[in-house]
Amino acid sequence: MTKPKPLFHTLLLILPIIALFPSSPESRRLPFLGKHSLLHKPTNNIINSNYTYEIRYFQQTLDHFSFDDRPKFPQRYLINTDHWAGPSRMGPIFLYCGNEGDIEWFAVNSGFVWELAPSFGALVIFPEHRYYGESMPYGSRDEAYKNASTLAHLTAEQALADYAVLITDLKRNLSAEASPVILFGGSYGGMLAAWMRLKYPHIAIGALAASAPILQFEDIVPLETFYNIVSNDFRRESTSCFDTIKKSWAVITSVGQKVNGLDHLAETFHLCGKLKSTYDLSNWLDSAYSYLAMVDYPYPSDFLMPLPAYPIKEVCKEIDRSADGTNVLDQIFKGVSVYYNYTGEADCFDLDDDPHGMSGWDWQACTEMVMPMSSDKNSSMFPEWAYNYTSYAEECFNNFGVKPRPTWITTEFGGHDYKSVLKTFGSNIIFSNGLLDPWSGGSVLENISDSVVALVTEEGAHHLDLRAATADDPDWLVAQRASEVKLIKGWIDDYYTTKKSVFNM
């Protein structure tokens, strides 16, 4: 069986959702201030009893790299000054680099940033990524996403310039030019944090880049890495579970080819409507397995879906428990229901439901965020398929009228020979990763220098360290966060020492 070639992988933390291009079943994708420039919204939103923020809007430049007189757009950001030591004491500023989605969702899921603020006396700011959430150019999402011309300024480079301009204006209007800035980000936001530290070292003195696959481009890492990690996460829990999933793809195809086979599959998997093809069902299952690997957290969570602790273990228990006397399809349904229906509240499943709306990321993946992947039949529980750039480019052109630039990210931000480059030109970056996370395979997993550090945990999943602390945190997670705090404190202390030395001169 040959698997359709994947197009887009969402990064997230973010908003990982599989959606299909309706035009072609041959493609699939997977899936942080002055009065003159601020609009104040008199609303304080409560994240929980400990986190509060004010919503503000900054009139942002649409194109930072030209001098065209284009209309500005309101960039939303969240800000909290409750614990800030203030400009006179050079109180630090913690900035989370917004990802591909609503910034409030990222704020809710980045408790580590909020929890550090009191001990550091830090101001906290969560700027929203352009073209996501409420930060829409051209007045509305419909207009911003209208065509290639209106989407042209949705790039990582423009987003980083947004953050640089915003923080510069904010510091100026708070008389806080001397306050050091620490960047945070997870997944795509982690990539942005690392790249911003490299591109704008005068803006930020350090960055925590959690689960940031900055090497998932071109041929820097093996193309089968992502799906091999997903597969290994299942195999470590149960070899029989791994084998059942691996066998299921052929069974789905075989059943679907029979008379009324698609109806039988729809009934077996409790789908809300008719099944158009086995491809749609396989894509839905692929989604569940990949996201389970990303959020295989050691405690219950509702990051993507309400899930138990170590959800892959629970999925495999369900699959293995029904092995005797139960056909493969029923086994798979029982297992995948842990992801899609752990609470038991869903009566049926809608394969076409895309609540997050990933067309913004589709555009980014069709322009500069080209992350090639494949699946190997010998090491993966997924069907074999090979990356096909020609098909990828054709699909992008059909949908957006653009051709991808697969080498642009490495041209703009680097990636090849990254060890020597980071060692020579980089400093004050933490790359944190959990090896259960399939995106870890595209990140930096070893120390580059004393100040470009990799913190790697065997049992960690997708930017688990950025989540709020809980009573159920294992010792290794507590230790990882303590290491991050120590490094960040060191950066800030060194900055203060340097500032005082210069001032005394």
UniProtKB/TrEMBL annotation:
Pfam families assigned to the protein according to its UniProt record, in alphabetical order: Peptidase_S28
Keyword Protease: yes
InterPro entries (alphabetical): AB_hydrolase_fold, Peptidase_S28, Ser_carbopepase_S28_SKS
GO cellular component annotations of the record: vacuole
Any GO MF annotation of the entry: dipeptidyl-peptidase activity
Signal peptide: 1-27
Domain of life (superkingdom): Eukaryota
Keyword Glycoprotein annotated: yes
Record's keyword terms, sorted: Glycoprotein, Hydrolase, Protease, Signal
GO biological process, one term: proteolysis
Family: Belongs to the peptidase S28 family.
Protein name as annotated: Lysosomal Pro-X carboxypeptidase
